[in-house]
Fold these 3 entries.
Entry 1:
Amino acid sequence: MSDTETDNQAHAAVTLLKDLVRRPSITPLDEGCQALLAERLTKLGFVCESMPFGDVINMWARRGNSEPVFCFAGHTDVVPPGALEDWSTDPFEPVEKDGLLYGRGTADMKSGLAAMIVAIEEFIARCPNHKGSIALLITSDEEGRARDGTLRVMQALSERGESIDWCVIGEPSSEKRLGDIVRIGRRGSLSGILTVHGIQGHVAYPQLADNPIARFAPVLAELCSIEWDTGNEWFPPTSFQVVNIEAGAGAPNVTPAELRARFNFRYSTVWTHEALKKRVTELFDEHDINYTLDWHLSGEPFLTEPGRLIEAVSSAVHAEVGTPPELSTGGGTSDGRFISPAGVDVVELGPVNASIHKIDEHVRIDDVVALTRMYGRVLDELLV
């Protein structure tokens, strides 16, 4: 093992990451992760404020009272590990093997949190009188319903007139190697919860029944055939997917009284959720169908235009790995959907996402150290 590999294994961010992984903070539990971070931040002059909402613990920490405000954001909660017998190691006992660190949350996203904290410590050591303010917005509700986490903290900050200028989220944005992808936005997510009402009857006497499956079939075919848009400069075309259909009366000779379905749009800034709802409702109303349709909006699409934050993050990645990142809006949703609407420039930069939510989740130890340096370079670019 080289001296560099040995140094990286002992790096402060790797040590902190191990401490975080040992805390089984399955959504919405935090299990002391935020207290651990607050203890270190308080020593640096941060004012750390606990913001619990419901059964969710959140933390807002800030050093400085002036603008601009640079914020790191992330979450301490993790998804359940699944069947423990399928893991090669204990998911909540970090294990190093072949340059990798295994454990639930190593990639999503406790490595990002550890890198943030150590990057801030190193930055303040070399620049104690930095410009503006440094803040952290940490939640334990990102992997769950996301109702009492970042959304509520942003509402509370807005109510007291506190704002953020730039935000870097430590989500695992990278795909093949650290820094190859930086997320500068995300698509919106809109789900439809549908019930088609019919009349139950005997399959041999369809004229005496009203089969909701037959009613819905042509509507579904049309929904699937529509080209909703062709995307734009930053976003791919809007996607429509059916995720569940349920019907049946429990017998092979009976047509059901109702059909239940759920579908989802992942949509770009070409649409608003209001416009999508209107278009779908018009389509349903064009057919002879008795239905009830409810909606769930997970988040509107957001996009950070090229500017100082993207320049700083791209420069930091380029300096560390030798090539600039690809700027992307792919992937699912993130808590950026709650931060961006306040007029905040938001990007996501974190480790490789290949193992997230999987059995034997892991992160490259060298990447944790390199990510710490990237975050430090971003702070240098914006606050020195």
Note: The radius of gyration is 24 Å.
Entry 2:
Amino acid sequence: MSSYVLEHVGERASGYVHSVFATSFNVALDGFLFHVGDSRHPLSCCGANVAPDRLAAMLARCRPGDRAIVKRRVLRVYDVAGTWELDLGALEEQSLSIASPVARGRLAALEGAVAALGVEDLIGLARDARFSKVVRALERPDPTEDDLRRAVGFLLGRGPGLTPSGDDVLVGYGAARWLCGGAEAFARVVREAPLWRTTDVSASYLEAVARGFANQGYCELAQTAALGDEGRFPALLADLQRVGHTSGNDGLFGFLVGLRSVLRG
């Protein structure tokens, strides 16, 4: 389970099953969207992963709107057939904080590896004049808070899907800024943004990155860069690209823009 979850889901919380998918589900708990996924997949900074057979049993019963509570670190869900539980206290905690700066030289190697993917041609947004203007502002060595507000205002909720492409770009950008040691202004702007304009799932990831947390794929990429293990970049980047229809490439494009912002300074 992500350490970020522990900041929001303590000994007691209440809510309901928010959404159910083929291989995961979300539970809204006192305003926090808690994701439960498959242990064969990368861990979400907003959730926990469980064994496939355990997840299948939960998904077979899980329905949006089912009442849910957390008591003494146990998630309990009430459905038409009765009650089922997930012991959160039994799950291994994993830190998905990305707020650990990496040496500039090693960031340059990472920037080169991401740039080689050509992700700007694979994103889910139209690359029109306004989009290009926003990207140029984000790529500046030290974008002002006004620059950041305009960029967030333009990208927030832009595009279709569970996590719109514009939001994925922002999450990737935020992850890179934390990795480069200069995310405070961006984080402040995101925390003040009208996140109700986008999906609940996207809002949860934007809130997380504003606090220095990212999904496991980005954290592993950051750790690999910090160690200078450039040989692992292709496999880690390929895993990130496989996320969603365009979400992976959208996020990596934002990540690339964030890296360029720092390296040009």
Note: The longest helix spans residues 247-263.
Entry 3:
Amino acid sequence: MNFNLSEEQEMLKTMARDFLADKCPKTLVREMEEDEKGYPAELWREIVDLGWMGLVFPEEYGGSSMSFLDLCVLLEEIGRACLPGPFFSTVVLSGLPILNAGSDVQKLEYLPKIARGEAICTLALTEASARYDAPSITVRATADGDSYIINGTKLFVPDAHIADYLLCIARTNEKAEAENGITVFIVDARSPGISHTVLKTLAGDKLCEVVFDQVRVPKKNILGQLDRGWGIVQRIVEQAAVAKCCAMVGAMQQVLEMTVNYAKERKQYDHPIGSYQVIQHYCANMATDVDGSRFSTYEAAWRLSQGLPGTKEVAIAKAWTGEALERVITLAHQIHGAIGCTIDHDLQFYTRRGKAAALSFGDGDFYREIVAQEMGLS
């Protein structure tokens, strides 16, 4: 059994860490939380030039033909650096679904734009219930000639204020069972009838309320099949959950290293606080949670990358990692003391963003239910 990354993955990891350490200091992260767009155009262009936007797309679409597992390695470093911007929403929430479920025409139209950094995309999934099950989808799409008319409100849509395209999940058949009447639409974000409001969030990210008011979408913009979109949504949520876990693992690793370094340097009663057993045990518990989260996350990522069934593994990873991050952050704050609670300290970035990430695409209880179902307990 070999848990090591491949040589190519190690190179990607090292390159990404060095690049982000240089180009994405916490001063930039602070600045982007207050910025209207939420990302720096110059850094975005450099990321495009590195090939990150097309990392998992085939070469015919301007990509590098790397795997979902390779993308997860990159996402861990992105989480470690708190990279601001629409990378996750464009690549994970939009690019991968188009790659997985799109027609040849759709792939040729949208994937090269994403790879070249010419299109920012996002997913309009969540509604007022904030759940990730089929009955929660109430936004409607009604047939009208060669188009569909979409009406309703989506909440917590990342980066909708700067998006060029939205993947909108809508109900197209009211009479069918919840899972059988859902369709995914590729919507031009500048279509008449679309409005958005940027929400104030704990994480300082750009989540939006998006209102669809008589928005007309051509039938050719259906992703996959009419009324058969729930399978696409399930795959999106699984990949997004694992991707969030990778970002959380990167955040935990950074918090652990920050905390261990602080424990070595901070002195109390003429001794580094790391010399006291209670602090040592706190750090050991943090390291245990980091490694446990990494192993469960990468098992799930590997299964999805190989096209293997991974519902149970994804659920275990997301349920564990979100709560492990909370434990790691809590111990980090206890070790840092008052300084770690100030807005000027970097720890607060991981505290705020970690809470949001743990809830994204389902919290621990949501995924424990799935694990139970996979064990035949439902």
Note: The mean pLDDT is 96.
